[in-house]
Amino acid sequence: MSALDQIGELLRLVPVQRAGIGLVLAALGLPVVGVVIVGLDIMPVRFAMMHVALLGIAVGELLGVDPVLCALLACAAAGAGVAPLARTPEALSGAMGLLMSLAIAAALLVLALSGVNANGAFALLWGSILAVRPSDLVVLGTLAVAVPALFVWRRRDLALLLHDRELAVCSGVPAQRLTMLLLVLVAVAVAGAIRLTGALLVDALTLLPALAARRLGRSLGAITLWAMGIGVLVNATGFLIALGWDLPPGPVLVLAAGAVALVAHLLPERGASSWRVLDAASHGGAPH
Amino acid sequence: MVALVPGVRIRVAGRWNRTGDRSDYCRVELSSKQPGQVATRSPDSEGGLALRLRDVVCRHGRLAAVGGVDLDVAAGQRVALTGTNGSGKTTLLRAVLGLHRQVDGEILVGGRGSRSAAEWAWRRRACAWIPQRPAAGRFPLLAHELLRSSGDGGQALSAAERLGVGALVDRPLSSLSGGQLQRVHLARAVGCVAAGAGVVLADEPTAALDFAGQEEAAELLTGLPVTLLVVTHDRAMAARCDRVLEMAAGRLREVG
Ligand SMILES: Nc1ncnc2c1ncn2[C@@H]1O[C@H](COP(=O)(O)OP(=O)(O)OP(=O)(O)O)[C@@H](O)[C@H]1O
Ligand SMILES: [Mg+2]
């Protein structure tokens, strides 16, 4: 059976269809979240949220409340909680590291108290794209709409805020509220994505497209569009390759996204000379 | 070009663009507003807002960078702030904008304090800022996005054109030279004033400019219908101002 036949065959299966839809939805929302992560310089957020989510699960088990819901709420609260630290650019990154250590310690303590096996708790956190449920698709769909919508609605404020917080503050941008909203969004999206796709895939879906786009775009708008485009392209090709050659989708997607990011970094940067050419072309070389 | 008696200002058309055509900047600026719009858009600042500082102390940790500054600037007055490096000029300006956190004392702009978030929002609309060291920026920002952040992108853009950086507005700020970036910030300040700012706080706005640019910028800033507080080491700029203050080790004194 050729790879194409196999893809056609597999795509008739409901879990595979769901996985495909999930990946497309994820590709629309998560790369934009990645742009925020790169913009706020909070790369450790994934590890921090993993452990905050674990703490949420532990608390949920202890109280007998839906652990996954608790995990999402804990992440949202943690995102909102670190927002006041965003006043200086360096503070947030450090805060994420601190948050991670504190969350691990607290989670282990609560797990010990509640007598829940830590591995069992982690398993709740660790999803797979082929086990996506309809309720997960709702979460992904909401992110796919809400995140790009926020970026369209507040594009000027966001461009200023991600460039320089002080300039944004002086331009009337509600920096504090907007930062908190972004951090909550990042926290929930990352936690949700880990649950849906496994921790490894989160990088492929969020950070890698954003890192590639950061090299290709010259403004927030351009970077955001590049990130979404790369996300959709990588997810679609990676998923089809995985289906056609019977490979596990997670690693294939990560490798595909990583390859794109690598290529973007190897491309020569558009330097000063090309700007000069542009100026000369549009203004007949008028002196400035 | 500008005859001045404290409180009374007679402005003759200023020649501040390099190409040499005369332009009455202020008239253009003010007549571009709809009469009805002024009340809603501007913090009531035609001709500038008064500035009043009482016993202002600003600390960096334990270091008191500004120590007990009293200052009254009348609406529309232009004040040059000079002084040695590290004497606290930048810190003082940032305190007015609420960018410096450890501030004691009283700062009033247009008679208004800054107790609530709404008052801070008003303060920042009322005060245009030209930073001494524009941030490198963690994410790219296009020059026209910076101009638009003034609140009146149209006026800021045409000011950029007159300052010779109109062709650069589609470029990211990181690709501009120091002087070009400073010109864009000057143009942004013009946009802020058009959008209703009554005070311009300019922190060494001509430090990166060429000789002609220093002239243009001095003429532009002193010609704006606002209260001007400009930190400068440039004698020509200081000469155009109504008052010259000198700062030394966090204290302020009048020198002319
Ligand atoms: N972020 C900071 N942390 C600690 N100290 C600072 C900080 N910024 C400024 N200072 C100190 O505060 C004092 C005042 O600095 P400020 O920038 O206000 O000086 P300035 O008068 O603007 O100097 P210049 O003419 O060089 O621009 C200096 O002694 C400086 O070293
Ligand atoms: Mg300074």
Short recap of the structure:
The complex is a heterodimer of chains A (288) and B (256). Chain A is built from 14 helices and no strands.
Structure in words:
The complex is a heterodimer of chains A (288) and B (256). Helices cover 82% and strands 0% of the residues of chain A. Chain A has 288 residues and is an all-alpha fold. In chain A, helix 1 crosses helix 12 (220-244) and helix 3 (45-63) packs across helix 4 (67-82). Mean pLDDT of chain A is 82; it is low at 280-288. Chain B is α/β, with parallel strands linked by helices and 256 residues long. Chain B is 33% helix and 26% strand. Chain B has nine helices and eleven strands. Chain B has a six-stranded mixed β-sheet with strand order 7-8-9-5-10-11, with helices on both faces. In chain B, strands 4-3-6 form a three-stranded antiparallel β-sheet, covered by helices on one side. In chain B, helix 6 packs across helix 7 (178-194). Chain B is globular. The relative contact order of chain B is 0.20. Classes of the chains: A mainly alpha (288), B alpha/beta (256). Chains A and B meet through helix 8, helix 9 and helix 14 of A and helix 4 and helix 5 of B. The site of adenosine-5'-triphosphate has 12 residues of chain B, from strand 4 and helix 3. Chain A: Pfam families: ABC-3. Chain A: InterPro entries: ABC_BtuC-like (IPR037294), ABC_TroCD (IPR001626).
